[in-house]
Amino acid sequence: MIVDDEEQLRSLLSRIIALEGFAVSEAGDLKTALKFLEKDHVDVILCDVKLPDGSGVDFVKDTRLKFPLVEIILLTAYANVGDGVQAMKNGAFDYILKGDDNDKVVPLLFKAVEKVQLQKRVQHLEQQIGKRYGFENILGGSLAIKESIGLAKRVAPTDTTVLLLGETGTGKEIFAQAIHQGSKRSGKLFMALNCSAFTKELLESEMFGHKAGAFTGATRDKRGLIEEANGGTLFLDEIGEMHIDLQSKLLRVLETSEFIKVGDTKPTKVNVRIIAATNRDLKDEIKEGKFREDLYYRLNVFAIKLPSLKERKEDIPVLAENFLKLSSEKTNKRITGMSKEFIERLQQQEWKGNIRELKNVIERAVILADGPELRSAYLPLDMQQSFSNSSSSFDLANIERSHIQKVLHHTKGNKTRAAELLGIGLTTLYRKLDEYKISTGE
Predict the structure, then answer these.
(1) Most CB contacts within 10 A, which of 3, 90, 157, 433?
(2) Range in 126-135, 321-330, 398-407 the model is least confident about
(3) pLDDT tens across 73-95, in order?
(4) Which fold has domain 392-442?
C-alpha cells in the first residue's frame, strides 16, 4: 500500500511496483490507510512522512503495535536525521528520500516482503509448537487431571518455580512444556535435563558449563544448560537424584540468579525459570540427608501432584485413541479403532508404568495388528491372563478360556496345531473360541 497525498507520485509508484508483480493499493491520508489495513491484507507500506492528518513517523509506531507483521518504508521529500532515527526506533523497515533513487524502492520492497514471509513462517512454527506442547495437548476429562491442569494454568504466566510430583510415566515433562508455553517465556528456549542420567561430574558440567582447562579433556569453554536456557525455562527431571554437592549450586541460582562455571572464578548472571520434577518423597530424602531442606523449600513454592493412570482410568479410552492415531501414522497402518473388549482390558490394568506404559502397549498392538481394529489378542499375554484371573480365579470356564489363549499364543495362532495340543477337534475349538469370545486377530 502506498500512502501519500501527492496523487501523481502515488500513481507513478503504483505502476512501477505493479509491474514487479505486486498487488498495490493507494491511500491519500493516514485515516484511509488505517481503514484499509483493518479490512484487507497488506504486507508492506510505502508511506510519506508528512501527511494532511498526521506524521508517518508516528504512524509507524501505531501501526506496528496493531499489525506487527506489516513492514513500513518511509518516504520523505526533506531528509531529517532526527526523523530518520525516530522512524527506525519506531520500527520502520527503512527511511529514504523521495526521488533520490527510484531504483532503490523495488529492491527494498522485495527485502521487506522477504522479512514478512520469514516472520509469518516463524509465527506459524510457534503456533504449531504451542499446539503440540500447550495445555490442549494434555488429554483427559477426569477430575484428577483437570485439577492438575487448572493449577498448572494458574502458575504458568508467572515466573514462580514449580515442583511436579508424581509416579514415573505420568507426563511430568509434558506438563513442564505446557507451563513454559503458557508463560511469557514461550518465545525462548525450553531445556530439559534428567538428573539421573549423569554422574555428579558430568551433571555439573551439563548444568553449569565449564572453562577450558577446568579438567582433562576440557579443551574449550562450554555453556551449561542453565546458561543456554537464559530467558527461558530449565526443566530438571528426577531432581531427587541430584548429588547433594550440586544442590547447593542450584540453590544459589534460585536465590541470586547467578552461578560459577566449573574452573571459573567469576559468577555468570542468568534469568531462567526452574521447573523441577520427582517421583520420590523429598521429605524422606531430607530425613536421610540426601536432599537439602533449604533447596526443597525453594523448589516447593508451587507444587503440582500429577495423578497416576489408575487414578484416572476413565481417561484411558481417549489416551489410547490418541496413541493409536500416533502409532498408526508412525507404522503407516490404517487402523480405525479398538474393540470393546480391548478397551475393557486396558481399563482393568494397574498401569504401574502409567501413561508411558499405555503408549508402549498401544504401539505394540498396532505393530501386531493385521486388521483395521485393535483386539485383545494383540495385548501382552500377561494382560490377557490378568484380565481372566481378575474375573474369577476358580471359575472353570475362565480357567479353560485362559488355557486356550495360552496354547494359541504358543502356536502363534495356528488353530489346527492348537486343537491337537488341546486334544479336541478343530470344530470344538472354533465353538469354544466363539463361546468364550476369544479374539485371534482374524
Answers:
(1) 3
(2) 126-135
(3) 998 877 677 788 888 888 899 88
(4) Arc Repressor Mutant, subunit A (1.10.10)
**163, three cell numbers:** 515442583
* pLDDT higher than threshold 70 for residue 126: no
The residue written with cell numbers 502409532 in the block is 327
Taking CB atoms within 8 Å and a gap of at least 24, the contacts of 278-282 are 278/163, 278/164, 278/165, 278/238, 278/239, 278/240, 279/165, 279/166, 279/167, 279/168, 279/238, 279/240, 280/240, 282/239, 282/240
Mark 108-125 as b/e (b = at least 16 C-beta within 10 Å). bbeebeeebeeeeeeeee
> 394 is written with which cell numbers?
476358580
Quick check: 204 and 262 in contact, CB under 8 A?
yes
Q: Which CATH class is domain 2-125?
A: alpha beta
Strand partners, 164: 277, 304
Between CA 68 and CA 84 the distance in angstroms is 20
Task: Enumerate the β-bridge partners of residue 373.
Answer: 337
Cβ-contact 353, 383 below 8 angstroms: no
The pairing of strands 267-269 and 258-260 is antiparallel
Q: What confidence score (pLDDT) does residue 85 get?
A: 84
Q: Taking the model in full, what pTM does it have?
A: 0.62
Number of neighbouring beta carbons within 10 Å of residue 442: 10
CA distances 109 to 16, 23, 76, 350, Å, are: 12, 12, 16, 63
Cell numbers 507404522 label which residue?
331
Among 62-76, 228-242, 303-317, the minimum mean pLDDT is found in: 62-76
Helix axes 244-256, 200-208, angle to 10 degrees: 20
pLDDT in tens, 412-427: 888 998 888 888 989 8
Q: What does CATH list as the number for 308-379?
A: 1.10.8.60
pLDDT at 125: 65
| Residue 170: Cβ within 10 Å count | 26
Check: CATH 3.40.50.300 for 134-307?
A: yes
19 or 389: which leads in pLDDT: 19
Q: What is the pLDDT of residues 249-269, one digit of tens each?
A: 999 999 999 998 888 889 999
